[in-house]
Amino acid sequence: EVADKMYFQFGIITGMLLLFFALNVYLYFALRDPIHLWYAAYLLVVTFLILKYEGFERQFLGMDGEMATMIAPIQAVASLCVFFQLHVVQKFIRNIRPEERLYKFTTIVKYNVLVSGVAHAIFFALKLDANIESVIFHWSNKSLTATVFIILFYCIISFRRGFKPAGLVFLGIVVFLIGGMEKLFFLESLSYAFPPSLFQWGLIIEAII
Q1: Second label for 113, Cα 20 to 30 Å away, from 79, 87, 123, 160?
Q2: 168-192: per-residue pLDDT in tens?
Q3: Quick one: which of 50, 51, 45, 44 has its CA closest to 22?
Q4: Contacts of 136 (CB under 8 A, 6+ apart)
């Protein structure tokens, strides 16, 4: 009975994320605004991140647990997730112009977290050198943390300049980011699929806003 409730709860969460994914794909073709396609990609990565963390990738995607860990370690998936998230925030918030230093710095941070995540995935899979793997792991971890704070700072600056929707983005995203940091820094903790964790609730709130 507990297992049934857990799967039901998990199905609601992933179902809502996939619903928002389909909605954004539709909006992209209807409006031809690339931000919806980027957000759809972000939602797919988020869904995969939840599957990985809860250990459901084998059941739902047919991926062997060890193989899935080797090919896509959870920190690499989280890096990709945060990359898409920051990219969408940049596209949505338009009162910070591309020629500004803040926008340029944020873009560097964005691609840094992507490159560090990809590097972590490659070296983790190849197992070439433990010392290099450790350095890249910490690079990726610190890049994730920095990107989290940059997203929050970016929203605050935009809001102070008068773009009020940035405040909604901030409020919607902060719960997800806190929950995401909980996942990143306490990877050894138990699964939170039932009841839903702060991370999972944050995903839903952030997607709705």
Answers
A1: 160
A2: 888 877 776 666 666 555 544 444 3
A3: 44
A4: 116, 119, 120, 123
